[in-house]
Amino acid sequence: MRRRINIGTTSLILIFVVLCLAVFGLLSLSSAQGDWNLARKNAEAVQGYYEADAAGEAFVRKADRILQEAEAQGLSGAAREAYLQAQLGDFYQDGLAVTDIGMEYGQALHIELDLAGDEIQVKSWNVYNREEYEIDSSVPVWTGEE
Asked: Which residue stretches of the chain have pLDDT < 70?
């Protein structure tokens, strides 16, 4: 009789192990790429917020400078209102300095400053969605009912 080397079972197990390692490696790469894209998108959103926040701080400084100039000139009442309106333009509305600073992904930073007193008071400083949000309902989803 000839002696045969039985490598069939061992080869099948080795091929299965190599295929499993290849699949898990590809899944790990796919997951890592998804994490990288999410981290990059988050970094862009944070950077966009801080750029808008810096622009908002510049708007507050400008409004404060204009308010101090009105105080230094001794303006009050209607003359003060007219001066603030002339200096701030469209940003001045009914005793408030209002601006919306655009951000990424259809968002904006909304700022309202109360200029009625001697000092600026922040009435509103928040991020909101400028674009209408629509939910995609084109995919049929099982609701649990038969």
From this structure: 1-6
Calpha distance 54→57 (Å, rounded): 5
Burial of 115 (0-12, 13-18, 19+ CB in 10 A): buried
Q: Which residue has the tokens 């204009």?
A: 66
Report the alpha-carbon angle 90-95-100, nearest 5: 45
What is the helix (H) or strand (E) element at residue 42, kind and residue range?
Answer: helix 8-72
The reported pLDDT for the residue numbered 4 is: 64
CA 142 to CA 137: how far, in whole Å? 12
Q: To 10 degrees, the CA torsion angle through 16, 20, 22, 27?
A: 160
pTM above 0.85, yes or no: no
